[in-house]
Design a protein that fits this description.
This protein is an alpha+beta fold. It is built from eleven helices and four strands. Strands 2-3-1-4 form a four-stranded antiparallel sheet.
């Protein structure tokens, strides 16, 4: 951009504000996009983990009968080709988990506790497992993990779509701000633009001046917005890792997600340039 070009546009205060506007808008958009990508990854990971897992409960009042049925059920399940792994839940571990709610539920307690078998499937079809368990004990209960975690997955999917909707709204708001800034610049330099037209400048040439200036403002603001968003994302990543939660730990960005976030600043600059060009050319053709 020549010195004359800079003098024409640097006086437009609206354009100078574009640097800060682009920084803020890009910062918020990157955070929203990262939230959407992260929750999508978490939902996908949760579905993969739970799709092939279920628990078989052997409900029987007599401990001896319960243990015998559990052993028979475990042996039957391990023979099925649909089962990758079947493990009887340790009674001591089960007692420890239930103690905060039910108190002492050990071997000497009066409250009967069902035997539990954790099953990892080779696929997602649990029909054979259900049939095998019911043949041995009609009182067997089969809990598919994917079924009772479905509301959590649905909530994560809702967050994903909400985050992507926010990205679209931020893009639309950015385009509107560019349009307003370009119109303000036109009004500020209307007399200068009329002189340029008398000297032979075309609408497209004038639009390029605004386009270059806004592109520079968008690039400067983009650098600041990206740096701030990256710092926040890294900070949140360390905080999530410190929680040690398997569910929240799945909110992580892969290489493809980081590549998608890297495209956002480029798209912002392209959007700003296109909006400025269309606005200036259309306004000049209507008024001059």
């Amino acid at each position: 951009m020549s010195g004359a070009d800079r003098r024409v546009l640097d006086e437009a205060g609206g354009l100078r504000a574009m640097t800060w506007v682009m920084a803020i808008m890009l910062f918020l958009t990157l955070l929203a996009a990262a939230l959407g990508l992260g929750t999508r990854q978490s939902a996908d990971a949760l579905e993969r983990q739970l799709a092939g897992r279920l628990t078989v409960q052997i409900v029987e009042g007599s401990p001896a009968t319960r243990d015998a049925l559990a052993a028979r059920t475990l042996a039957a399940l391990r023979r099925l080709p649909q089962v990758r792994r079947a493990t009887l839940v340790d009674r001591g571990e089960l007692t420890r988990l239930l103690a905060p709610w039910l108190g002492d539920v050990g071997a000497d307690a009066e409250l009967p506790v069902p035997a539990m078998i954790d099953v990892d499937l080779a696929g997602t079809d649990a029909t054979a497992i259900v049939a095998a368990a019911r043949r041995i004990s009609a009182a067997s209960r089969i809990d598919q993990h994917q079924r009772w975690m479905a509301p959590v997955v649905g909530f994560l999917d809702t967050l994903t779509w909400l985050a992507f909707a926010l990205v679209v709204l931020m893009l639309a708001a950015t385009g509107a701000v560019v349009v307003l800034a370009a119109r303000a610049g036109l009004e500020t330099h209307r007399a200068t633009i009329e002189v340029m037209h008398m000297l032979g400048s075309t609408d497209v040439q004038v639009a390029r001046l605004f386009q270059r200036r806004i592109a520079l403002d968008a690039a400067m603001g983009g650098v600041a917005g990206c740096a701030a968003a990256l710092a926040v994302l890294l900070f949140l990543g360390t905080r999530l890792a410190a929680l040690g939660s398997e569910l929240l730990g799945g909110i992580a960005l892969g290489a493809g997600d980081w590549a998608a976030l890297g495209i956002v600043p480029v798209g912002f600059i392209a959007l700003a340039m296109a909006a400025a060009r269309v606005t200036v050319v259309a306004s000049l053709r209507r008024s001059l």
